[in-house]
Design brief:
- The chain is an alpha/beta fold.
- It has one domain: Glycosidases (TIM Barrel), CATH 3.20.20.80.
- Helices cover 37% and strands 13% of the residues.
- α7 runs parallel beside α9.
- The longest helix has 25 residues.
- The protein is globular and about 60 Å long.
- This is 6-phospho-beta-glucosidase.
Amino acid sequence: MTFPKGFLWGGATAANQFEGGYDQGGRGLAVPDLKTAGNVDTPRRFTAKIEPDVYYPSHQAIDFYHHYKEDIKLFGEMNFNVFRMSIAWSRIFPQGDELEPNEAGLQFYEDVIDELIKNGMTPLITLSHFELPMGIVEKYNGFSDRRVIDLFVRYAETVMTRFKSKVKYWLTFNEMNFGVMDHGELTVLGLNPNDQTIYPDEIKGNEKVRFQALHNALVASAKVVKLAHEINPDFMIGCMICHITSYPLTPKPEDILKRKEFDLLFTKFVGDVQVSGGYPSYMTTYLEKKNMFPIFEPGDAEILKAGTVDMYTFSYYMTICITTDGSAKDTAGNLMGGKANPYLKASEWGWQVDPIGLEYTLLDLQDRYHLPMMVVENGLGFADELKEDKTIEDDYRIDYMRDHIKAMDSAIEKGVDLIGYTMWGPIDLISAGTGEMKKRYGFIYVDMNNDGTGSLRRYKKKSFDWYGRVVESNGTLL
């Protein structure tokens, strides 16, 4: 195996999916705190206020807020040397726009970071992971208001300054490219205006507003990258892209062209801006033709150019096919689907498993960006069974991860500059899409049901010891 010395092995999480403590320590409400549970057939519902006798999964999640020492100790037992987590903006600035931060929130994260370091892990922190403060949504309509740029910069400066000697790796926005899509307001507006009543009529379903919000978030990200290097020149700042790797379903030229257009618009555009520091010509032409090109304020172009990232990070779970044939079979995916590949098998949730696609993706990205890379989300969701003896036999997860680790190894052999891998998620947590617990990713089982009931006790799965050996051997024992 060829994983380099010092390769970063660990796991990835998001505050709104595992932290809990939504009303403790001075924290304000974030968008997920007003989203009910759902399932595959029933979408999650957003409520304008917290309703009595309604279950909101993020309120408790798996209660890392009170279990962090126990959980971090377990991560340490698996020999993690990196742990990816997000900071909830509303725990630092409860409404998102206060002048002074909430010290209790800063202290909580400092305690968590110190515990990680004590257990041999370097933190990898995402500043915004689908959890805009509700104050930013209600007062400013998310990033559609340029004032939010400086609010985000203030928040980032606060935490980066506080932790400048303890945290080296930072990501600005999680899966920022979802801001391109109709349901992508998770990142830039906080909610989907097509489905919610909180937005004024001129915002609802307004694609031009969404691209303006995405532009403002890109400016905010670039400002933070530049500021971060001033706070500590040793910081490494990355973008984080949802990489839905796609193939043309057939060799028909029409399928190949349509797949290329999807890849540029959804998968590559945001990364191109954050790596190169400017809008690529294909996107400028697309937006101008649709009369949606965002307003560039004086200095925006220079800000984007000065705030390029140091590394490219991305999530990878599955691949999809693209075709002009509307009758082709559908397949599911990470917040969006595509057409099924007849050569691939699918997981229990319909996501097609494709480890070779990860090697292809790494080679493609290395050729395009020439930056160090991390795979910061990758894993298999499954309805794991806790047996009477409190064991979980998850060989299917071991098989999935073994094949994807082999794909990373092969890509490194071919010259890819891969520096880290944080699988999603090392401990069971609530689903972002449905709010369920049933779809489990972790090496650690959490005794909790879809309705939030359960003891919250943690149990090691079979994959726990397996991944610990993989990390300890730097990828040689699979």
